[in-house]
Amino acid sequence: MATFHHSNPTDRDIRRVLQKLIIILSLGIICVSLFYFFTGCCESDLTENSVSDRPASDDRNGTFYKDVVTVQDEDGYPGTGEGSTLTPGLETDNTGKDWKATRRLPQALIIGVKKGGTRALLEFLRLHPDIRALGSEPHFFDRHYARGLHWYRSMMPKALDGQVVMEKTPRYFVTVETPGRVHSMSRDVKLIVVVRDPVTRAISDYTQIISKTPHIPAFETLAFKNRTNGEIDSLWSPLWIGLYAQHLERWLAWFPRAQIHLVSGEGLISDPAGELGKVQDFLGLQRIVTDKHFYFNKTKGFPCLKKPEGSSKPHCLGKTKGRTHAPIDPEVIWRLREFYRPHNQRFYQMAGQDFGWQ
Fold it and tell me: Where in the chain are disulfide-linked cysteines found (predicted)?
């Protein structure tokens, strides 16, 4: 008589449960592997965007702030990298448009002048959500032109459609080759020049020079070819930069006057919101940066930005801003004012504006 062996029903149930657990575990491992694979692919993008493309928090006044990356610029102010305290992090928005943010050539340039207030203007403009500005000075058109436009574009911050990309390098205004090179990049680029009383600007320039090289000759010595007969050395850089008409004429040979906006350096101190309003109009942007963003620092003698939310301190432009000027012989100042008078009058005519320099 045949004998049949039947499996224990309990054993069958255990095998089924084990099979199901193995299948579930395998699926779990596959899912986890896929998760790490995709996040790993994106890691390089996340690293690149961790400073420049990370959404910034905004305070109750609509002002944007991000991590500070300090550099030194030609104006002698502590500049900021792409992730400046004042750089709006706008590559990501509620509609998920971050994937459209790209690096492109600038549509606007702050081309001058050194010690005129270009750093202040740049930092104030970077409060605007539709402006994406490079914090450091790339010096592309005067020093690094051989690197090519591809390199220049790679220096720019990423921006969305509708945002204005810009950079500032004050040396552009006085460099002979620069207007033609900028025109080759774009005929439509908008140009901004911050001008300041050329005598005050020259003294400020010299003050910065002696802070780095304290043993150079006195301002009064360097300003003259021959002090006995009062002949001014107009080729000395601090004085040559102040020949605004000469430099502007070179730019007007390449660009129409309507594409060049002149900012008063004095106005940037006395009425920053007013000057910023005109710059925003020139760039075709809504006037978002207004007087609510500023307060006047009586100690330093220039405007500062109101403190960001979560910070106990307001934002001013660093120790070099508002530095006490070197004392200059009043007679030398008078001679320089006489020297600049005809140059200033010619500049006023070209600019269509009287800046009121004495």
Answer: 304-316
Distance CA 180, CA 174 (A): 13
Give pLDDT, residue 109.
98
d(CA 261, CA 110): 9
Q: Which among 37, 173, 186 is positioned nearest to 112, based on CA atoms? A: 173
How does residue 348 score in pLDDT terms, banded at 50, 70 and 90? Answer: very high
DSSP class of residue 285? -
- From the list 37, 152, 133, the residue with the least C-alpha distance to 85 is 133
Read off the pLDDT of residues 41-88 as tens digits, 9 standing for 90 and up: 433 333 333 333 333 333 323 333 232 233 345 554 444 444 333 333
DSSP characters over 94-107: TT-GGGG-B----S
Angle, vertex CA 73, rays to CA 68 and CA 74, nearest 5 = 170
Omega of the bond leading into 113 within 30 degrees of 0 (cis): yes
For the chain, give the percent of residues with pLDDT over 90: 60
- Mean of pLDDT values over 182-196: 98
User: What is the CATH class of 57-351?
Assistant: alpha beta
pLDDT at position 56: 32
Q: Specify binding-site residues.
A: 115-119, 196, 204, 321-325
> Rounded to whole angstroms, how far apart are CA atoms 119 and 127?
13
Token code pair at residue 21: 């657990």
Write out the binding residues for 3'-phosphoadenylyl sulfate.
115-119, 196, 204, 321-325
Cβ contacts of residue 136 below 8 Å, gap of 6+? 71, 73, 79, 80, 81
Average pLDDT in the chain? 80
CA distance 258 to 254: 12
What local confidence, expressed as pLDDT, does residue 183 receive?
98
Q: Which 3 state secondary structure label does DSSP give 111? A: strand
Catalytic residue ranges:
115
146: CB partners within 8 A, 6+ apart: none
Nearest CA to 159 out of 183, 129, 184, 185 is that of 129
